[in-house]
Amino acid sequence: MSQLKKAKAAFDLINWNRFRFWFQMSCFVLLVYGGYLGLDLGKHLPTFSCIYNTEARGGACYLSILQHQMAWPWQKLFSVAALTILTGFLTFAAWFIAINKLWCGLICPLGTVQDWMTALRRRLGVRYGRYTLGQFRVLAQIKYILLALMFLIPLGIGAGWFHKDWGLPFCMICPARMIIPAFDLNFTNWVVDFSTTPKMILSSLGIVVVGLFFVGIFIKKRFFCFFCPMSAFLYLISKPALLTLKKDGDKCTRCGDCYTVCDMDIREIADEVKNPRIMMDDCTLCLKCVAACPEPGALKANYAGITFFEATEAGFIKRSQKGIGLEQPKR
Amino acid sequence: MNSPNAKTVALPYNRSRQAREAETMLDHLTDDFDDNPAAMAYFYDLFRRAYCKGESLEREGVRVGTTCIHAPEELIYAMGATPVRLCNGSYHYDQVGADFMPAKSCSLVKATLGMLSSENVIPKVGKLDLIVNPTTCDQKKKASAMMAGMGHQVYDLELPPAKESEQARVYWQRSVREFAQQLRSLTGKKLTRKNLMAAMARTGRAQAAFRTLHNFRRKSPSVVLGKDVFLITNAYFFDDIERWTEAVEKLNAELVQRDKDGFCAAQKKAPRILFTGSPPIFPNLKLPLLVEQSGGVVVADETCSANRMLYDMTAVDEWLVNDMVDSLADKYLKPCTCPIFTNNDDRIRRLLELAKSFAVDGVVYQAFAGCQVYEMEQRSVAEALNKEGIAMLYIETDYSPDDMGQLTTRIEAFLESLKSRKRKRA
Question: How many inter-chain contacts (A to B, CB under 8 Å) are there?
Fold first, then answer.
């Protein structure tokens, strides 16, 4: 047990950003090139490991198969066959419940691409954009609309209201469809599909979204995550998740250090002192806030009730001195 | 102008009233206690030289006076200038400054004005090139024009009256950026990533040393006394930051040894006191001194001459000048528990947390007569503490030594009640 405690104390001192960089890198390789290594984690992953990355992927995003199933004719959808959907959903939920939104902050290949773009901007010495938080909060509600449409349009196809070419509506506009396969030098999706009107509309919309994605990510950290319907979906089912972000309000000085480093501009992380369950809907569980908190035990990442990473004073000082580029002070 | 100081200018400095006042306090701080830490010699000596002998502490380059903890020192250091905190604790200057302010106003503001209007200023920090006056309480706000009237160049650093909202945060970030511009025109230096990083590293190291010292005060029985810690943080007002940090690190090393040896700086059962309210500033350390002379020990504080000034640290996400300046601005606003803000739940939460984590027996709340904001918050703080079963002694006082006798009686009675309470519980 004391061995375990020691390991945890050492982990609390970790240079979290660097650790996260390499962790994301490894996950990116496994999910984007895993197919070549014989890896197949199935089609129910709660992360944007894009299904259009046909040969190379190490597993596929659940949204694609979900939209596909939702578009079944209603006779089939409301029959025993729906059990397939249920088992699929349960597999997806099991993946998710195991590590909560860590799928977003540490694993999602599209998130990783965004972090790389941010790093590039930082290297160039360009600062991120600033705009009023209030307006952006309203914009971020779009993800719930996208989530709703992602169910309603396929259901409409099943009912016969829409043409089947409206199928996979979210995939068609998701930037991952173009960006992720491109890492396998697959550019087949970088075109406007003129075969039918719905396909033309959706594929041109997709190109516009990718354009916005590249502009947005240069202005705002994790730009796309604000609009991600997967993020919204995951948040809605996050209650039973085993991995949790906890805040001890009594220990918080509301210094705002966590808010300063938050990629998703979540004010509550700094200001909320009553609710210990602090994971808000936009949160990607990147855990940068835990690493940036100087108050011992104020922020904690728990797994099944056991703390595996928490804010410590020593860790904070070590990390900030690393940031400044200084060695540890003489003792 | 015809100040009471005029008569004393002719006397050798060490016989002047402010020198005697400082000397009396220092003698109490050193001689009334056995076993002062060896590393404290640096600080005792520093204050003796600066306050009793009137030795000069003049610095090279641009000198910037600050009247509050809200002026970001990192920016001042980054531009090659030196900050000096002007908040003053001298009764002599308090009387001089009484000319400027209404009778019922805060000793601290009066003493600061008194010092700035005097010819023979102590501590001798040299001519100030700029005074940064954050717009905090009303008295400090109005002091701005008076300082300007004395011939000082004053810059009002605009602080919002509330700190919770996003507007306040953005407003303050803009104020701080404007201040950086002002410093640039003053020093002719540009704020760069490199010089700001170096400045933040220096302050960061000082804060880390302070936090280590702060954590030693959790120990029970205590290894260090509160009067010494107040003297140390007071030295931060004017001392060279690197020398100060080294001296604190030395003291920390000594405290490690003390802790190992099972040393007790106070009686084992000495009531543990949390100090809050108007800041004790040398030579006005009378209240913490009285507490410790009467057998208590000040184990923690929530004042802007110590904890509030040094405790909260800056986190930066992207080490680019813009982001660093904004992060600094956040540090100077968001965690601040100053009572000038509209809503101050943070202060109460901080007091409760300190009381809990430092195993505090009682709270001493000092309010300078005329410091309305502290006087007004007294009720809510007392209620919150009482709810948690923590006793609080509220003391309204000023820089005058006249009430020492009366205060000793009150403090002794308070400590006695804490002791009997403890016995009953045990």
Answer: 100
pLDDT at B126: 82
The residues, any chain, with a CB within 8 Å of residue A242's CB and separated by 6 or more, are A97, A98, A99, A100, A303, A304
**Residue range B305-325: mean pLDDT, rounded:** 93
Closest to B126 (Cα-Cα) out of B52, B44, B61, B72: B61
What's residue B287's pLDDT? Answer: 96
Q: A325 falls in which pLDDT band (50, 70, 90)?
A: low
Residue numbers in B near A294 (CB within 8 A): 312-313, 315
Q: Does A40 touch chain B (CB under 8 A)?
A: no
Q: Where are the domains of chain B?
A: 12-425
The DSSP secondary-structure symbol of A103 reads I
Measure in Å the smallest separation between the Cα of B324 and chain A Cα atoms. 10
Domain limit, last residue, from A206, A234, A262: A234
And the tokens for A255?
A: 């210094």
Do A73 and A220 lie in one domain? The reply is yes
> Distance between CA atoms of A213 and A236, rounded to whole angstroms?
25
Does residue A326 lie within any of the structural domains? no
The interface predicted TM-score of the complex, written ipTM, equals 0.88
Chain B (332-351) residues lying within 8 Å, Cβ to Cβ, of chain A:
334-335, 346, 349-350
Considering the domain architecture, whether residues A69 and A177 belong to the same structural domain is answered as: yes
CA distance B19 to chain A (A): 36
A326 close contact with B: CB closer than 8 A? yes
Determine which of B176, B196, B317, B332 to mutate to test the interface with A (most A C-beta atoms within 10 Å): B317
When scoring A254, A272, A273, A326 by the number of chain B Cβ atoms within 10 A, the one with the most, hence best to mutate, is A254
**Mutation test of the interface with chain B: which of A257, A289, A317, choosing the one with the most B Cβ atoms within 10 A?**
A257
Distance CA(A235)–CA(A281), nearest Å, equals 5
Q: State how far the Cα of B399 lies from the Cα of B94, in Å rounded to an integer.
A: 7
Q: How far is CA A110 from CA A26, A47, A228, A256, A318, in A?
A: 14, 9, 11, 28, 30
Question: Could you say which of A234, A259, A281 is where a domain stops?
Answer: A234
Q: Does A328 touch chain B (CB under 8 A)?
A: no
State the total domains in chain A. Answer: 2
Task: Using pLDDT thresholds of 50, 70 and 90, give the confidence band for residue A331.
Answer: very low
A220 found inside a domain: yes
> How many Cβ atoms are within 10 Å of A303's Cβ, its own excluded?
16
A250/B211 touch (CB, cutoff 8 Å), yes or no: no
Phi/psi of residue B398, nearest 5 degrees: -145, -160
**Domain hosting residue A81, numbered range:** 24-234
Q: Each residue of B254-281: pLDDT tens digit?
A: 999 999 999 888 888 999 999 999 999 9
| B352 at interface of A, judged by CB pairs closer than 8 A | yes
Q: Provide, as residue numbers in chain A, all residues whose Cβ is less than 8 Å from the Cβ of B204.
A: 317, 320-321, 324, 326
Q: Read off the pLDDT band of B249 (50, 70, 90).
A: very high
User: Mind listing the pLDDT tens digit for each residue in A251-297?
Assistant: 999 999 999 999 998 999 999 999 999 999 999 999 999 999 999 99
In a shared domain, residues A111 and A167: yes
Give residue-wise pLDDT tens across range B98-131.
999 998 899 999 999 999 998 877 788 888 999 9
pLDDT tens per residue across span B169-217: 999 999 999 999 999 999 999 999 999 999 999 999 999 999 999 999 9
Nearest C-alpha in A relative to B169 = A256
